[in-house]
Amino acid sequence: MFFAASLALPLVWFIARFIVNRKRSDIRYAPGPSAKSASWIWGHELEAFRGQALEVYSKWMYTYGPLFKINAAFFHNDIIVVGDHAAVQHIFADIFTYMKGPSLRPITANIVGKGVLWAEGEDHVFQRRLLSPAFTLESVKKMADVISECAEKVQCLFTWLEWKFDQGKTFAGFLGPVVIRAFPSIVSLSLKSQNNTAGLSTAQIIDNISTFIMAGHETTGGALNFALMELARSSRVQQKLRREVQQFRDALSYDAIQKLEYLDAVTKEVLRLHPSVPHTERVAMRDDIIPLATPIRMRNGTVLTSFKVQKGQVFHIPLMTMNTNPKVWGEDAGEFQPERWLTPNAIRPSNELPHGWSNMVTFTDGPRLCIGYRLALFEFKVILATLSRSLEFHSTDATVNRKDILTLQPVVDGKCGVLPLRLTLASHT
Ligand SMILES: *[C@@H]1O[C@H](CO)[C@@H](O)[C@H](O)[C@H]1NC(C)=O
Ligand SMILES: *[C@@H]1O[C@H](CO)[C@@H](O)[C@H](O)[C@H]1NC(C)=O
Ligand SMILES: *[C@@H]1O[C@H](CO)[C@@H](O)[C@H](O)[C@H]1NC(C)=O
């Protein structure tokens, strides 16, 4: 008797919890790919990972709308994939309710240490406050001179290597990361320009260095790779960009760079199509109601304008999908068209686009908006300007696949991080 009761009680509790939980969350009737199409062990997660970066999420978002659920691997509760602008803005704005997923945190800790990318809540606010003086507009302008000097050295190097490039060599390597390695890291820059590292232990400094190498160099280098790929594919864009940057023969100062309109449009277009971090994850730390910019039709026919979630809910936020959704950016959303940023009304008003830098979620948004975005943009632009005024980029016939491996990586012939490119010296006009 006692034995039976001890079995029955947990069962009753389990069923009661299930019923109560169902009321606390709207996930039950959320749209999404059929559970039958999911693998027993991997849920829908393997299918999403197998394709090109974010391709499957983009397809599903087109089919099911900007909020849908998928089956998680290892029998975890269903995951919500959310690209609705209001919902994502809400999630990014509240760093105390929405924290990085437990699946992402150990990986982040391993790769970049327990730094500002890893920290949550109060710890994150504290670290961010200590680091932010290094990333203000003023600080970036101070660093800009050092960066421009490096860019000039790189350009000298190219002239020096003229005879090599003249042969039209194919570079099977990452030109972006190689060039960016010639640049000082944010750590050495900020150590030089101010003393905001006082009182940190060696371990803390090492943690911070790996954060900035990973978050700064790796991502900017990757984005440069894709920029060169796009320029190689479009000689029209490449020539237009070269004409603009060749007008500036002096050092590319911070203010000079800001004046280059077409360079800015090319930069935005590269970061829209090839965000260095293609998706991110969050977990709800308490029950919440998430606002929706676009109402969603549930499987039971109800239309919801906000969505109830319960504590522990995992979210995938497909940044790349949000940047390239044809329902938001138009039918040519997947094409490299820098002109869209310069043509009046070519993109929708900002309240109909995602919330974030230039209406994209490339740097995410809210209190965790990439702390180094100004520096990253400047570095990206200086290097792209320097490279494209001296060199011409030509496509090879290699097929470039893109994979989401925490950061966006080109994959050619099964090799990761390799992007073949043919270079020749550009003629000066
Ligand atoms: C349909 O689903 C919504 C959202 O979970 C819920 O509020 C509503 O009560 C459901 N309607 C029916 C008839 O089950
Ligand atoms: C970096 O510095 C902060 C303080 O600025 C410290 O709390 C943290 O542990 C250090 N590590 C990383 C990676 O940020
Ligand atoms: C460095 O710290 C000292 C004392 O802590 C302060 O007086 C000085 O202004 C700081 N320098 C910079 C560049 O912030």
Automatic annotation (TrEMBL):
InterPro entries: Cyt_P450, Cyt_P450_E_grp-I, Cyt_P450_sf, Cytochrome_P450_monoxygenase. Residues 1-25 form the signal peptide. SUPFAM superfamilies: Cytochrome P450 (SSF48264). The keyword Metal-binding applies. Its cofactor is heme. GO terms for molecular function: heme binding; iron ion binding; monooxygenase activity; oxidoreductase activity, acting on paired donors, with incorporation or reduction of molecular oxygen. The keyword DNA-binding does not apply. Keywords: Heme, Iron, Metal-binding, Monooxygenase, Oxidoreductase, Signal. Pathway: Secondary metabolite biosynthesis. Heme binds at C370. Coiled coil: none annotated. Pfam families: p450 (PF00067). Belongs to the cytochrome P450 family. PANTHER family: CYTOCHROME P450 (PTHR24305), CYTOCHROME P450 12A4, MITOCHONDRIAL-RELATED (PTHR24305:SF166). This is Cytochrome P450. It comes from Rickenella mellea. The lineage of its organism: Eukaryota, Fungi, Dikarya, Basidiomycota, Agaricomycotina.
